[in-house]
Design brief:
The structure is a single chain. The chain is mainly α. The protein has a single domain, classed as S15/NS1, RNA-binding (Helix Hairpins). It contains four helices and no strands. The longest helix has 24 residues.
């Protein structure tokens, strides 16, 4: 379930730290959160889709690692991105 190009570009524009920024942790966390939300909705109606569940768990782990990295680098940036996305600290 990939994101469309326009959806991805909207998320990048919202969370980028500088013009042309597509790889900062904030952008990556936001993109992963959107994909996780969409995949969780899919799994609500397709409970036996084990392969997608495994992908979901790996995306959640990757997002967690990015959040931990960002905490080490700058704690203020973490609290800002988590508040915008709607995740707990």
């Amino acid at each position: 379930m990939p994101l469309s190009t326009t959806q991805k570009q909207e998320i990048i524009n919202k969370f980028q730290t500088a013009k042309g920024d597509t790889g900062s942790p904030e952008v990556q966390i936001a993109l992963l959160s959107t994909r996780i939300t969409r995949l969780a909705e899919h799994l609500k109606s397709h409970a036996h889709d084990v392969h997608s569940r495994r992908g979901l768990l790996s995306m959640i782990a990757k997002r967690r690692r990015l959040i931990n990295f960002l905490k080490k680098v700058d704690g203020d940036r973490v609290s800002g991105i988590l508040k915008e996305i709607g995740l707990k600290d």
